[in-house]
Amino acid sequence: MGLSLTSDESEKPAAAALPTTSAWNVPYHRNVHFTGRDDELSDLQRSLAANDPARRVQAICGLGGVGKTQLALEYIYRNRNLYKIVWWVNADEPATLSLGYAKLATQLGMKVPEGTSLDDIRHALRRKLNERNDWLLVFDNAAGVDDVKNYLPQDRTGHVIITSRNPNWDSIARPFPLRPMKRVDSVQFLLNRTGQTKPDTAVGVLAQALGDLPLAMEQAAACIERTRIDFNGYLKRFETHWAELLGQVRTSGEYPDSVEMTWEISFRQLQEEAINSANLLDLLSFVGPDAIPRHLLRTGAATLPEDLAKV
User: Fold this and answer.
1) How many Å apart are CA 33 and CA 189, to the nearest integer?
2) Residue 160 — φ and ψ, nearest 5°?
3) SS3 call for 263
4) What pLDDT is attached to residue 5?
5) What per-residue confidence (pLDDT) applies to 198?
6) Which of 136, 169, 224, 255 could in theory staple to 173 by disulfide, Cβ–Cβ 3.0 to 4.6 A?
7) Sign of the CA dihedral running 270, 275, 279, 281
8) Residue 136: strand, helix, or coil
9) For residues 262 and 226, is the Cβ–Cβ distance under 8 A?
């Protein structure tokens, strides 16, 4: 579910920071389809700006697909003028977390002797950040407290956002539970994302069937846009396959059923339209969940079966 394919250029941080930003590492561009969440964004901003240092570490937690990462991204793009350091770290793997955090030291011009351990860099960087208050750290998709706590500057002079499915963060952060979108926002998102301007009862029913979960609605809207069917047509397809898919699809438990179902419908559509592309996607599912650079496919195409190499 986390697998994505990027161009070589998107491997680099998005070049969207203001000139005053001295360190910017945000690997995703702003979501042009972001809808709603005004109350949540206001709450997040108030909490991070509080005088209480304990509230300057916010752990956005909730179901897979509820939009935790997107909320963190939208906060960054709305408030980037508040920070000179905005540093995003993928926290789902310890090695990735350690390396991504250590790169900030280089970006800040810290002199790191050759052979310095990542632990020593971490300690030095925490002390460096304690000396200033113009930074925002984001630890995306963290498993739990133990994975992140040793990376937090002790004095909490700046701000920290953690995203996680784990709700238990009280010992180091203020838990920020994120719930599905409001129905009115879900309907507006589906209309905006598909480019359809005429709301009907099927839009609200589809939003309800998808649990008002942003990821499920994104997948459904993409399929609607691609196949040029209407909301009622997709809803019928969803309802027709629901019982069948629940019986056949081995869900991972990481995402709600509605998210799993929208993915399955998209996969089936791809199999109908471009079987070789679907087979290539199956192959790529064995690769780690980080973004896959296109040059990896170009250089490795010669080792693939002929049909997949053409794709």
Assistant:
1) 7
2) -135, 135
3) helix
4) 36
5) 75
6) 169
7) negative
8) strand
9) no
Distance (Å, whole) CA 285 – CA 287: 5
Number of residues written out for the chain:
311
DSSP-derived pairing of the beta strands 292-293 and 85-90: unpaired
- pLDDT for 208 equals 93
Task: Give the type of residue at 295.
Answer: H
Question: What pLDDT does residue 21 have?
Answer: 58
Q: Buried b vs exposed e over 114-124: b needs ≥16 C-beta within 10 Å?
A: eeeeeeebbeb
Q: DSSP letter string over 230-267?
A: -HHHHHHHHHHHHHHHHHH----SSS-HHHHHHHHHHH
Q: Which two tokens stand for residue 189?
A: 């998102």
* Regions in the chain scoring below 50 on pLDDT: 1-19
Stated as kind and residue range, the H or E segment containing 6 is strand 5-6
Residue pointed to by tokens 């609200």 = 204
Strands (E) in 133-233, as ranges, are: 135-140, 159-164, 174-177
Q: Which of 189, 24, 23 is nearest to 108 (CA)?
A: 23
Query: For residue 4, what pLDDT is reported?
Result: 34
Q: pLDDT tens digit string along 130-174?
A: 999 999 999 999 999 999 999 999 899 999 999 999 999 999 999
Contact 55, 48 (CB under 8 A): yes
Q: How far apart are CA 140 and CA 26, in angstroms?
A: 11
Q: How far apart are CA 179 and CA 214, in angstroms?
A: 10
| CA dist., res. 91 & res. 164, Å (int) | 9
Identify whether the C-beta of residue 76 lies closer than 8 Å to the C-beta of residue 27.
no
3-state SS of 57-107? EEEEECCCCCCHHHHHHHHHHHHHHHCCEEEEEECCCHHHHHHHHHHHHHH
Q: What is the dihedral of CA 122, 128, 131, 135, to 10 degrees?
A: -70
What tens digit of pLDDT does each residue of 235-257 get?
888 877 666 655 555 555 566 66
Cα of 262 vs its chain's centroid, Å: 17
State residue 11 phi and psi, 5-degree precision: -70, -20
Q: How many whole angstroms separate alpha carbon 108 and alpha carbon 119? A: 17
